[in-house]
Amino acid sequence: MQLRSDSRSRLGRLVKAVAVTAALALSLAGCSSGSNNASTDDQNGYGTASVQLSWLKNMQFAGMYMADSNGYYKDAGFDKVDLISGGSSATSAEAAVVSGKALVGVSSPLITAPAINNEGAALKVIAALYQVNPFAIVSAESKPIKSVDDLIGKKIGVSDSNTLVWNAFLKANNIDSSKVETVPFSDTSMLTTGQVDGYIGYTTTGAAALNASGFKATELLMADAGLPMVGETLITTQDNIDNRRDALKAFLKATIKGWKDALSDQSKAVDLTVNDYGKSQEYDPDQMALTLKREQAIIETDETKANGLMTISDDLQEGTVKTLAYADIKIDKGALFDTSLINEVYKENADLK
Question: What are the structural domain ranges in the chain?
Answer without folding.
Answer: 48-132+229-352, 135-224
